[in-house]
Design brief:
By secondary structure, the chain is mainly α. Helices cover 81% and strands 0% of the residues. It is found in: Membrane.
Length: 453
Amino acid sequence: MELFVAALLLSLPAVLMAQETTDVETKAQIEWSDFWMMRLFFNLIGYATIFVPGFLIIRHLRKIKYNETAGNSTNGNSTKGPGCIQNFMVLCVFGKEQHVSLEEGGSKSSSSDSQDESFTKRTIRLLICVAGLQGSYLTWGILQERIMTLEYGSTATSSGEFFKNSQFLVFINRILAFIMALLVIFFRKQPAHTAPLYKYSFSSFSNIMSSWCQYEALKFVSFPTQVLAKASKVIPVMLMGKVVSRKTYEYHEYVTAVMISVGVSLFLLTSGDATRHKDSVTTYSGLVMLVGYMLFDSFTSNWQGALFTQYKMSSIQMMAGVNMFSCLLTSVSLIEQGGFFESSAFMFRHPEFMVDAIILSICSASGQLFIFYTIAQYGPVVFVIIMTVRQGFAILLSCVIYGHPVTVIGFFGVLIVFAALFLRIYANQRQRALKRAAAAAIPLSSVETSEKA
């Protein structure tokens, strides 16, 4: 017995060392799995399980011209059973290729109504969009920073834990927005849908990635650095518009874009918040996240603008289509990684996180309603201008509420931003007036030419 006790005492240090080594290895494995590159890799693997089979199916159906085969087989047959599935497949891959002509009413009346709409009504609608976007996303930004940068469950005697799964936040934002869009479609009449459903997947993927990069960036860079990147996003959006939609912009649009970026940058760099975060470490990972956010977000708004122009769908239809694919992609990826179990366990451990997540989802869903409507009515560049100004308002509210000082240079930056906005409104209004005058002068000149003949 004594020999056994002695052997146990001698082996105890080795056991403790082995246990410590195991704990270190487990901790290293957890830290490695939390690294953003690994998270991104597993996320992309999850998305590939949807995109790769989908691409192969779409290519095969287009190769065999499935829309013609399905149309012949369902003529005169009931819409129940296989015929309904065939129609759904055609809608997913081909859509309704025959767009509504101008003579049949669709886009011509809405286009003429928007051109003939008074400046006052158009301004009021724009102000409503601005108010909705600002209210939704100012609240959303505050909660976003809280969830990603503060510890939950921390007390005076013990530290808490951070929430790490950014993709789960993307999922809960998109699922509520998808449900809201479906409810609006169910209760409100929508125009005939003609776009192939798969085309929503491109902007859905870029939207997921931009949101994920935005959440992940807060782990590596200071808040003013992230806001500064967003403030300079107008120019990448315009450049992406030239690539995606072959758009051309006037000189005043480039000038006002630069003015807005410079003005917001001056304000943010000299604000109290920038001073407070001046010791924060900006890593290469954070810069990669910011670049990724800007590129993906620029593609999203321009691709959606191109779909609006080509297929004339409503903003609610766009919202439903994009969020449908977003829910599909994120849910499959979370299931494969066990993200639902991990995030649900965190939620039950910290009920305050559940409250923050619910409010975050509500703000995101309501904000998306304004996003799609604004892009459909005013284009992606106007939308980005509104969201850029929102960044300045976020810091301005912080200065008012928490007493941060505003420097002279910062105030000058705000004046530059609003001067650029007024210049852009004036230039666009003047351009529309010149187009209307030129359109009215064409019939008059043709009458004079016929009289002389």
